[in-house]
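Researcher: Final request for today, and then I'll write up notes for the group meeting. The sequence and the SMILES for 2-acetamido-2-deoxy-beta-D-glucopyranose follow.
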Amino acid sequence: MLKKIVLAIVFIFVIIIAARTILLSRHSPPVTECRATDDDFIPLSDSRLARFQRALQFQTVSRDVGDYNRDELQNFGDFIINSFPTLHNSSLVEWERVNNYSFLYQIKGNKRDLKPYLLMSHLDVVPATNLEAWEAPPFSGNIVDGFIYGRGAIDVKQCVMGILESVEYLLNNDITPARSFYIAFGHDEEVTGSHGAKMIAARLKEKGVSELEYISDEGLPVSEGLISGVNKPVASIGVSEKGQAILKLSVKGVPGHSSMPPKESTIGILAGAVHRLESNPHPSMLGTGVETQFLEHLVPEMNFPQRILVANIWLFKPLLSWLLSLKPHSDAMIRTVTSITMFNAGVKANVIPPLAEAIVNHRIHPSQTVREVIEYDRQLIGDARVNIEIASSIDPHPTAGYGNNDFGYQVFKTTIRQIWPSALVAPGVLIGNTDTRHYLNFTNNIYRFSPTHMFPGDAQRFHGLNERISVKNYEQVINFFFHLIRNSDQPSLSPVHEHHDDL
Ligand SMILES: *[C@@H]1O[C@H](CO)[C@@H](O)[C@H](O)[C@H]1NC(C)=O
Ligand SMILES: *[C@@H]1O[C@H](CO)[C@@H](O)[C@H](O)[C@H]1NC(C)=O
Ligand SMILES: *[C@@H]1O[C@H](CO)[C@@H](O)[C@H](O)[C@H]1NC(C)=O
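Model: Predicted protein-2-acetamido-2-deoxy-beta-D-glucopyranose complex:
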């Protein structure tokens, strides 16, 4: 009898595991690929290429809040206005400079009942260092072996210029969009966006905009070799951003002479607390959020053992969490991570330290809140002598819809696959933060994606040396935005229902 029950249970497990593995292995239906022979393909002409190279020459560097290169931002703005004469003088367009250097455009569609959307980007860049180690100077826009070099080539002047080129093309070809849209270029994204994006968002509200269909901003790229065993490019659309909490831990004591020490010093107590935080990571959130969907979307391309594991997180969560925690980038996907970034204590070699302080930086998984993370720390530390103070914090952003009936997500997915027909599109979480924090009141549907094709080793070029984009990729960027705008013109999606989502 018992044997039969055990066998029956094993049988049911095997059926569920097999069913999930098979169902999640289905491929997405094909889309019509964007080809250079299409009527609406925008070729990278010499003048389009030259405009992008010129854009990379403006040293629109942000150093700190309020500390950015105003002259260069002014020049870059003037260059934009002069380079796209149709956009800046079309009856369909209202535009303005916001807080001197940022830009806001409204492109008026002819179906006013459709909710507008917003394309965001930013004009500033981070500083360039180690100039001698660059293969071409960082503000040259020079082309070496098919790559255009320059600070901002992938973060993110390719999107600024790609959006402008595609809209100029649209207007020059007398295409009136059906759905209205806005374009917002902030000028200090690299230093919190408090002068740029924040002001644009306020201006947008002033203009009476309260709700947007979706927002597009820079984010995750199209990556090759992201996950071992998955050989196709993976295009992940950031549907949320991790939150952040910067905590200041402190322990106060009574100063005294080192010849008569107390049993425990402030340094000893704080070191113990910090050690407990570092050696006890926050729990794996695998199975609760977007990271699960991300992995499940890659199932069709995984090898058989990977497929069985990922299709059955309900069963294999502990094993899979352990595997993912082995590498920092996949560990960051599944949990709130903890970095001890500063430790200060002591005043003199023979004085008992009166104060010890440490800074802890958490990046918070979207399934948790700042409050929960601090509560968890408090219990881990388990020592009331350690004072915990929030230096700054932001909860993870709400998660945008990524289902079959979520308009913005599906428009992104279709567009990505038109440009990269072999790409696997999956929802993901952005580990950093962008200007989108200033636009959270307009919609939950914020999609963070950069149409940049990245190969292993390219990630270090962000804010690093030899930032570059291939000539071919820049042409894809322009056509990506053009197709995104065209695809956004449909009034709604035809409702689809796939069994797939019922699991
Ligand atoms: C802008 O357009 C108007 C008519 O629509 C035209 O008279 C004017 O010359 C144009 N200005 C520029 C700078 O092209
Ligand atoms: C914008 O320009 C005005 C006039 O030159 C100046 O007073 C103001 O500080 C500028 N704003 C910013 C953000 O630089
Ligand atoms: C969103 O709206 C709330 C309530 O009006 C306001 O307190 C908050 O500052 C707004 N957030 C942003 C990012 O503008």
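Model: The chain has 13 helices and 17 strands. The two ends are 31 Å apart (CA to CA).
Researcher: Thanks, that's everything.
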